[in-house]
C-alpha cells in the first residue's frame, strides 16, 4: 500500500475505494428524498443528509457486497435504504432528546419544528421500504424491517432505563445493540445476502457490524465526557444534562459512596442540576476509573469486530474494515 494511502483514515480509504458507488448512492438519495407536493421534505432531509456525515453505514453495505463478490446493482438501493433509516432515526432522536445541535449544526427540529422532523422522518422510513422491496429479496426486507423495529425498541428501552440508577451494564448494552448496533449489523448483513454469500460469511458480517456498532456507541458515550466539542459535533456533557445513564455513569454509580449516590439521585433521577454539577460528575468518573474502564470495554468490542472478520474472503476491503475497528477506538486516545 502506498504511504499516501497508509496515512489516510480507514473510512476515507473506504470512501475512495467505493467512490463510484457512493456517487450512485447519493444520486439515488437525492432522487428519492424529493417530494412533488411537500417541498419541506427535501429541505429538512437535505439539511441532515448533506451535513457532512461520513456515510459510514451505507459504505458498510457497499463494502460487504464488494467483499463477497457482488456484481449487480441492488447494493446501491440497500446502501441508500440504510442511510434513509439512519437519517429518519436521527430526526426522531433529536425531537425526543430536544437536541439543538447535530454534526456541529442546528438540528432540524430547531430550524423548523418538531412536527416537521417527525413527519419527514416517517417519510424517509417509507422511502426506505420502497427501496428495499425493489431488490425483490424477502430476506433483505426481513433483515432491514427487523433492524428498524429493533432501533425503535432500543430507543424506548432507553427512555425507561436512562434515568434509573438501577440500570445495569447489561441493560445498557441492550439499548446500544438496539439503537446503534442494529443498523451497523443489518447494513453489513444485507451486503452479504444480496451477494448470495455463504451463511458463515453472512453471520460473520452481522457479527462484525454488531461489535463495531457497540464499540462505536461506547466511544461516543465516553467522548461525551472527555472529547472535543468541535470534533464530536455536540457539547461536552450533553448526556449528563439529558440524564442519560451511559456506560461511564453506570460504572461510577456502581462504585458510589453514600454522598455520591445522593448526587446521582439528585442530578440523574430527579433532574435537579446546577451549572457546577458536570464538573462534579466528571470528578467522580475519574475517582472510580469509570472513563478508563469504559475505554477498555470499547477496545474489547473493537477486538471482537476484528475477530469476526476471520471467515470472510481475503479482500482489500477486509483490511479496511479491520483498520476501521481500530480507528473507532483510536478516537479515545
TrEMBL record:
Checking Gene3D superfamilies in the record gives: Farnesyl Diphosphate Synthase (1.10.600.10)
- First-tier enzyme category under EC: transferase
Query: Which is one GO molecular function term here?
Result: all-trans-octaprenyl-diphosphate synthase activity
Q: What EC number is given for this enzyme?
A: 2.5.1.90
Can you say what this protein is called? Octaprenyl diphosphate synthase
Classification via InterPro entries? Isoprenoid_synthase_dom_sf, Polyprenyl_synt, Polyprenyl_synt_CS
Q: Which cofactor does it need?
A: Mg(2+)
Keywords in alphabetical order? Magnesium, Metal-binding, Transferase
Natural source organism: Roseobacter fucihabitans
By which gene is this protein encoded?
ispB
Amino acid at each position: 500500500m502506498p504511504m499516501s494511502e497508509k496515512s489516510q483514515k480507514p473510512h476515507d480509504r473506504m470512501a475512495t475505494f467505493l467512490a463510484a458507488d457512493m456517487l450512485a448512492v447519493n444520486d439515488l438519495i437525492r432522487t428519492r428524498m424529493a417530494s412533488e407536493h411537500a417541498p419541506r421534505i427535501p429541505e429538512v432531509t437535505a439539511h441532515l443528509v448533506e451535513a457532512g456525515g461520513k456515510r459510514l453505514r451505507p459504505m458498510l453495505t457497499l463494502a460487504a457486497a464488494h467483499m463477497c463478490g457482488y456484481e449487480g446493482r441492488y447494493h446501491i438501493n440497500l446502501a441508500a435504504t440504510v442511510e434513509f433509516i439512519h437519517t429518519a432515526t436521527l430526526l426522531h432522536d433529536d425531537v425526543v432528546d430536544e437536541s439543538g445541535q447535530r454534526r456541529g449544526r442546528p438540528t432540524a427540529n430547531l430550524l423548523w419544528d418538531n412536527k416537521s422532523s417527525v413527519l419527514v422522518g416517517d417519510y424517509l422510513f417509507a422511502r426506505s421500504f420502497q427501496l428495499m422491496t425493489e431488490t425483490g429479496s424477502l430476506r433483505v426486507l426481513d433483515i432491514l424491517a427487523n433492524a428498524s423495529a429493533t432501533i425503535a425498541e432500543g430507543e424506548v428501552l432507553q427512555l425507561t432505563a436512562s434515568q434509573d440508577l438501577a440500570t445495569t451494564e447489561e441493560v445498557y448494552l441492550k439499548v446500544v445493540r438496539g439503537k446503534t448496533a442494529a443498523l451497523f449489523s443489518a447494513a453489513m448483513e444485507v451486503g452479504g445476502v444480496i451477494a448470495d454469500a455463504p451463511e458463515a460469511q453472512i453471520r460473520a458480517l452481522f457479527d462484525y457490524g454488531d461489535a463495531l456498532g457497540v464499540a462505536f456507541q461506547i466511544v461516543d458515550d465516553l467522548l461525551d465526557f472527555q472529547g472535543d466539542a468541535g470534533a464530536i459535533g455536540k457539547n461536552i456533557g450533553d448526556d449528563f444534562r439529558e440524564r442519560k445513564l451511559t456506560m461511564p455513569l453506570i460504572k461510577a454509580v456502581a462504585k458510589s459512596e453514600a454522598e455520591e449516590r445522593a448526587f446521582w439521585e439528585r442530578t440523574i433521577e430527579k433532574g435537579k442540576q446546577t451549572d457546577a454539577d458536570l464538573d462534579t460528575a466528571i470528578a467522580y468518573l475519574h475517582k472510580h476509573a469509570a472513563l478508563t474502564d469504559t475505554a477498555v470495554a470499547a477496545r474489547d468490542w473493537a477486538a471482537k469486530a476484528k475477530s469476526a472478520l476471520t471467515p470472510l474472503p481475503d479482500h482489500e476491503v477486509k483490511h479496511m474494515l479491520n483498520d476501521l475497528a481500530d480507528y473507532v477506538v483510536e478516537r479515545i486516545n
